[in-house]
């Protein structure tokens, strides 16, 4: 009863009338456009890309200067291949030139965000409310593919602010209760905490479960190994990390429900998501222009390549040809569902490890980008745990970094890993990449086992 009332009356009134948001209008457009032929969607995608480039050239100081330095003009762009002559935007650019990326004369409200990404190099950026509404609509569309409906119960195994004021926590709890959403922390996943997570899932009986891949996997594995029966939602959405086949199998077996793999990044939010056919991730082509680049050219379908992203919606701080340091493979065929949205065959990057605390706490490595993203004095970091569970955090210090910063990092991390945790901050001038050219920002040598007390 409440779900129907919320979906058809309360949420539309709140979102459209009270808040003046266009989220539901955007959602309606996306639900219609997904069935257009791929050729039409790609043409629309390209027109939006050209419009974004023209706006950047005319209205954004950073792009005006950088395009001039590269000797490129938008009027000379006639095909996607021409984009190879244009500069790539990096996290270093965001850090060094963030103010120049704000459009001339922008007067609207800006929302601040940041990410450590899969490289451990924090970056800060801004976006406007129209952008937020478009991104929310895209997420709602892909939720529906996984069986999610506005007003139905959703449970998130997700990041919760580590030092949230009491009043803010109370406000968030009330808001979640009204929209029928429950969030359990993805940070501390010790065996006794996993028992609590399983109990919360069983009590809440969610219609949709959303979570970071590793915490979802360890929750499901714990339930199976300890004989706890989980409720069966319509679907489970796994995101933030690469989903391996063995993880999908364990999660689906524990919940007796299908898993939907989703790919995104904080800078653009949703990039691609699986539909009910699970044949790849449909690209959010109405909002994002994606290039897969290999050796200075666009990779062919089936070839792995670096991701270059352009936000087609944001006009306050447009991120164009942004290198998010992931590797993906584009599919060479359409999905049998009939949607015209092209597919990603796989996301090859972002393999994350779990860090084990002194008493068996399991800390999702997604925690560390969250932990460092608002610390501008940390240029880059890498977390390594050896077989003795000793943790070394290598940090390239930035401006304003001092001895007290190291002490604060060690102190705050012990709140999550135990007071006896052996944590050492090591200041370095460089952090090397792997032999494959990928940066791993968490590495652990500690195996994880359940059913024997603390993880060992």
UniProtKB/TrEMBL annotation:
Coiled coil: none
Domain of life of the native organism: Bacteria
Stored InterPro entries: ANL_N_sf, CapK_Type1_Caps_Biosynth
Signal peptide: none
Name the UniProt record assigns to this protein: CapK related-protein
Taxonomic lineage of the native organism: Bacteria, Pseudomonadati, Myxococcota, Polyangia, Polyangiales
Gene name linked to the record: capK2
